Amino acid sequence: MTIRPLLRIGPVRRFTRNLLCPIDLLGRPLLLKYTRDPAEARDEIRGHARLARHYRVPTLHTHLRVPGGHLLAYERLPGGTDKGLLLDLLNADKPSSDLHTYMDRLTTTYRETILATAWLADPAHVVHKLYWDRAAPGGRLDTYYAGRDFLIADGLIAAPVSRLDTYTLSINGRRRHLDWAATLRWLRAHFAKAEPVWAALTQGDPTDVNLANPLAWFDYDTAGMNSIPGEFANFLWYASALGGWLVPTYNPAAFADHPAAFAHVPANTPELRRADIDHTTSTVHIDYTPRLSAPRRTAVTAYWNQLVRPVADRLWPGADLANLLRPYLAMRILGVYNLADLAPKDRLVLLARLAEAMSPTFDPTTYFCPLESPCPAP
C-alpha cells in the first residue's frame, strides 16, 4: 500500500517581491503566495473577490497574517514545466490551433466583460499602481530618472539622453524627434489630470505569465476598475516586447518553470543594424529590424482585431487610438525597466521605440505588428 505524505512542498519561486510555493496538503494541490506588503495583500484579496464575479480565477481558500507579511493559499491549477500558461502556447515555432482557440476565448471574455462594466470614471476610482503611481512624485519615473543623465548608448552613441532634443533622429530612414525631459514632464502631467477615463473591471496586468491555460487569471493586486487603454497597452507591449525579449533577458527567474521561453528569445529580439551619430548634421542614425515570433504575432493580431477594435468602436467611435494608447505605452516603455540599467543596444532600441510612439504619425496597427505576415522591412 502506498502512503501519501501529508505535506509535500515544491520549489519556492520569487516573483518581484513575492514568493510562490506549490504544496500538496492532504492530497489537495495548493499554491501559497507570500507577500510582505500588507497594502498589496489587501489589494490582492479585494481584487480576487472582484474579479471572481466575471472571470475564472483559482479559489482563494484562506489568507493569514504571518510574521513579516501575509500568506495566501490558492487552489493550484494544473501545470508544470512548460505547461499551464499562455506563455507556453507562445513558445512555439508556429501558432497552433490551441493558441487560436485560446485567443478566441480570451478576447470574447474580455470584450463581454469590458463592455458590460465600462464607465467614464474619475481617476480616483481607477487602479493607480501601473500608471498613475509610477508617474506621481516619488514614483518610478522619479526613482529611475529624476536628476539622472546617461548616455544614449554606451560605446555606440556617446551623447547624453538629456541632449536628444538637439538631434534629429533618423530611425529606419524616417525622421523622428524625442525630447527626453519634455517626455517625462508630459507623462507626469498627463497622469496628474483629473479628467475622467474609460475604465472597466479587469485583472490589470494581463501578461502571458498571469494568464493560465486552460483560460484563467492569476495575480490580483491590480484587479479592479482599470483604464481600458492602459489594459490594452499593457497586453500589446508585453506580448510584443516584454514577454519574448526583455523579461527573459533581464528577469530570467520569472521563467524558471518555463525554460522553452529562452529558446525563442532570438525570434523576438530586435536586430540593431546601424547606430551612429553625424555631428555635422546633428543626426542620430538608428536602423533596426523588429522581430516577433509567429505565435506572438498571432496573439497580438487576435487581441487587436477581436478586442481592441470592437471595444474602441463602441466606446470611442471615430477617435484616434494612437492618442488614447500613447501615454500608457510610453509609461510601459519607461516605467518597467530603468533604461539606464539596460545593455546599450537594448536601451537604444527602446529609445527608438519611444520616439516612434511619441511621433504624431504613431500608428499602433503597424507599431505592434498585428499582421499575420512578417513585419515589413524598413
Write the layout of secondary structure elements.
Blueprint: E1 7-9, E2 13-15, E3 18-25, E4 28-35, H1 38-51, E5 60-66, E6 69-75, H2 86-90, H3 97-117, E7 119-121, H4 132-135, H5 140-145, E8 151-153, E9 157-160, E10 168-171, E11 174-176, H6 180-190, E12 197-202, E13 211-212, E14 216-217, E15 224-227, H7 228-250, H8 260-263, E16 271-278, E17 283-289, H9 294-315, H10 321-335, H11 344-358, H12 364-367
Parallel strand pairs: 10-17
Antiparallel strand pairs: 1-3, 2-3, 3-4, 4-6, 5-6, 7-12, 8-9, 10-11, 12-15, 13-14, 16-17
Helix pairs in contact: 3-9, 7-9, 7-10, 10-11
What does the model show?
By secondary structure, the protein is α+β, with helices and mostly antiparallel strands. It has two domains: 7-75, 2-Layer Sandwich (Phosphorylase Kinase, domain 1); 86-367, Aminoglycoside 3'-phosphotransferase, Chain: A, domain 2 (Alpha-Beta Complex), CATH 3.90.1200. The protein is 38% helix and 22% strand. It is built from twelve helices and 17 strands. Strands 1, 2, 3, 4, 5 and 6 form a six-stranded antiparallel β-sheet that branches. Strands 11-10-17-16 form a four-stranded mixed β-sheet, with helices on one face. It has a three-stranded antiparallel β-sheet with strand order 7-12-15. Helix 3 (97-117) runs parallel beside helix 9 (294-315), helix 7 (228-250) runs antiparallel to helix 9 (294-315) and helix 7 (228-250) packs parallel to helix 10 (321-335).
